[in-house]
Fold these 4 entries.
Entry 1:
Amino acid sequence: MTTYDESKFLSVKDLNVTYKSGEDIVYAVNGVSFDLAKGSTLGLVGETGAGKTTIAKAILRILPDHSTRSCTGSVIFKGQEISSIKNEEMQKIRGAEISMVFQDPMTALNPTMTVVDQIAEGLIIHQGMTKEQGREAAIKMLETVGISGDRADEYPHQFSGGMKQRVVIAMALACNPELLIADEPTTALDVTIQAQVLELINELKVKQNTAMILITHDLGIVAETCDNVAVVYAGEVVEMGNLEEIYDNPKHPYTHGLFGAIPDISKDVERLSPVDGLPPDPSALPKGCYFSPRCPRATEECHSRHPELIHLEGSHFVRCIEVEKEGK
């Protein structure tokens, strides 16, 4: 039995992913590194197109073959390097030990199969259950996520958006994975259903001591759910730390911008303060700091030198030349 450091239950080191788009090379993920402890939750936060979903797909090794140009770096899960193991070995891990809740339940569900058969499929493949055992366990899983067993033989189109998302969560959790990757699991849901789904994920996570990577752009959800936060911009981590370090003492201008765009009922302001501009084109990243064209604090050096991720204190890291200078 392999022994490993539980504080490094999942360890991602220098992950780089590029895509090809016509003649262009798209630099989607650029040197991402982080550790995830057993039973803890990491929030990957950032705007659409920051590379969050690509990080998740690279961990699971489900990047699209037709458009992926390269994927390098190290992904160590429970002490085992999984980025270079054979596909057959990875298939045994994927779905059984690491599962993913996809962002859009309609693309994650097969419209031609009943929901019970879709959940049972993983149990039959990974846990060696018979068809009858798989069906029975799948119905229990549906009931666990709040769907009555008498709806087990219905098809995805017969469910509402919130119910479909519950089915996807049931599929992801059916084999009791040790790591759950949830890709914006509440984006398409109304606020009430969103709260129910988050509560459900948290309950099951605590019950099964599941580690989780939560991908979102909603800092409110992160505050409710996560232990640690990694802020992602243009495919790289620009700030990382535990919840208190990031929320009580944000250092990167981009993190400040994300917080400035959140409504605060305790403050009387006429307008929110969104981050000006748009994220850079990942096929033509700017020289120097990738955030410098949008940064209110940018200097000449920011436009010419790419900053390293520096350690501040505790588990707090930041990638910013100005913060680096303040510490000297």
Entry 2:
Amino acid sequence: MKNLLFLLVTVLSLSCCSKDEKPINPIDQLPPATQTGANTAGCLVDGKAFLPKGYFPDGNLSCNYINGKDFINGKDFNISIAQRNDNETLSMNVISYNKSLIVGETYQLKEYGADSKFGEYITVYNSIQETRYSTNVTITGELKITNHNFDKAILSGTFWFDAVNSKGQIVKIREGRFDMEY
């Protein structure tokens, strides 16, 4: 009887132990690719989910689509996602200067300049040590506009890019998506 009781307690104990939960796939942590003005954005940075996080006075997620002083006809676009941890600030930016963005078009992200499109990833440690990774002529990426509701000022799209720092280290931005009011 003792053996049977011991066996029953052992089986119950083992069956009650929680099994290790499977880790969540990083891509499943990103917001869905919507086109409703959900004010969401995210991407993978070197395979890890990168989402707005932490406190920033101006916000940790922003989208602008303007033309200098003329806020009606957009030509300058940027989407910015930022994270702040204890001693570290990270930001990912996709920027297009002097170009009206058209639904269905894919734009090459290359070097920074007056009429350019580019991607960048910036890390700042202890508010002083900055490392900037940027696309350039050979290290590139893409921005694709999937929706633009001009009347409601909603812009949605996808992006990816590789960016390099001054030491030649590369960061890979993948599966980027945004659905923002501007």
Entry 3:
Amino acid sequence: MLLPVTLVLAAACGLINLWLGLRLVRGRMQGVMIGDGGRPEMLAGMRAHANFVENAPFVLILTGLIELARGPSLPLWVLTAVFVLARVAHPIGMLRASPNGFRAGGALATWTVTAILAGWALVIAYQANMAVPPHGPAIEIVTPKG
């Protein structure tokens, strides 16, 4: 079964991950091979990259499982679009003076999407559990007429 929402999200996450890694290349080429070298912009870039890697897998897994259970839907597309925008905004904000709307908005949107997806997954699991009788399906014995 194709999972179009999850595939698009995974592709977007792959591109964001590359972008976040490439933002660190300039510092690496200037001699900071390990760590941040005491440079605040390197530390901010590394944390932005790490923060993405800390959050993206949960959203990808939840999206894939929800899509497997219910199929693609407009709410799932919207949530994943919000997540992608949030994950672009957050690292932009990491390089600006704090506090700022990009960083805060990106973090808040990420948490909100993750919470909604987690709740949605729990509802699906609960509904699936309630649909199965506790002792298996009932068997009806039918006697032939006549």
Entry 4:
Amino acid sequence: MDAVRLILTSRRALAGSGEIPEIMTEVWQAQALAQAIGSRLAVFGPPELRGEALGLTELAGRGCGVLDAPELAPGELRAAQLTELGDARQALLCLGSLLGEVGIALVGITCAAPDEGTYWQCMEAIDAADESRDRVLEMLRKLADREHVVPAREAG
């Protein structure tokens, strides 16, 4: 499945989740998807994005690592369904939106955290989501810069 479709599925699932465990599962799924997209961009994406893509992979991995891994049935891990990146710019735009929504959902959980462990888990996950989103925005900036470069033979 392509990245944009998986991201949109994650956004719908996050928006439709209600209880804290369900939200935390969707946050974990979103971070795992960001990690997979970062990895795919690092290997197959434009060369100027590879460093930031590796950083995204690491940060999103940290975002998964600070959360308790959900028990998912075979086939439920969206990141494992990623078969193609598609348009890198569109995928990054959608991923940036998803990560912003993840941060908002985590803030909501943090405010209503039932215990200190959940509170700190969410705080660390907020940092990871925010830093991941920063990487996505930097990659979008680099793509925009690349699109505005006029080859010398055309400028002339």
